[in-house]
Design goal:
The chain is mostly helical. It has a single domain, classed as Ferritin, core subunit, four-helix bundle (Ferritin, Up-down Bundle). It contains eight helices and two strands; from the N terminus they run ααααααααββ. It has a two-stranded parallel ribbon with strand order 1-2. Helix 6 runs antiparallel to helix 7. The chain starts with a helix and ends with a strand.
Length: 200
């Protein structure tokens, strides 16, 4: 499972990000909750926009339900730990990653699905990287997310290839993977789940 994710991504999460995550345990959970909520919303937007593909509708419906379930699990842990769910600015990761998405169809759908695959792959990789450093409850929870996150990655990538038909999309995939690599290894001003390296 992780082998496919690690082979897909162009780089590992820097150790400095892991250290920042451990120094910001409350923000880790707050932003994790935000990420799950946004992931569900992305899937729902695809369901609203592309109604003629039953495979996409089914996979995105399942994905949205799973992401909302993960959201519920994160906020339950936050409540147990007395962590307030505050409004926080998002990291620049997703917005920057989406900038090259083309504006005409079916290229827009293909690129949106590729971006989804990259985000899910990076999330999965970060859960796996973080888990060994966390307390027993969070470690068990993060490891439990790996299977579904890996499947979400595969679903997005499979749907992108299906939408492309006979066209080779490897160049587009590489474009977004290069952006992911740049964003996760660059310096960032504030720690977030998908931020780059924060200099303390």
């Amino acid at each position: 499972m992780m082998e496919a994710i690690n082979k897909f991504l162009l780089c590992e999460t820097p150790q400095a990000w892991i250290e920042s995550a451990l120094q910001h345990p409350e923000m880790l959970l707050i932003d994790h909750a935000n990420c799950e909520k946004k992931a569900a919303n992305t899937a729902l937007n695809l369901i609203h926009r592309y109604v003629n593909d039953f495979e996409l509708l089914n996979k995105m419906s399942r994905l949205a339900r799973e992401e909302l379930r993960h959201f519920e699990q994160v906020i339950a842990i936050m409540e147990q730990r007395g962590i307030a769910y505050t409004q926080e600015t998002a990291s620049r990761y997703a917005a920057e990653l989406r900038k090259p998405v083309r504006t005409f169809e079916p290229a827009k759908l293909i690129d949106t699905l590729i971006v989804g695959a990259v985000i899910e792959a990076r999330s999965c990789e970060r859960f796996a990287k973080l888990a060994p450093h966390l307390d027993e409850q969070l470690q068990k929870f993060y490891l439990s997310l790996l299977k579904s996150e890996a499947r979400h990655f595969e679903d997005y990538l499979g749907l992108a290839k299906k939408a492309a038909g006979d066209d080779d999309i490897s160049t587009q995939i590489l474009l977004f993977l290069e952006r992911d690599k740049t964003l996760v290894t660059a310096e960032d001003s504030a720690f977030r789940f998908h931020s780059g390296v924060v200099l303390n």
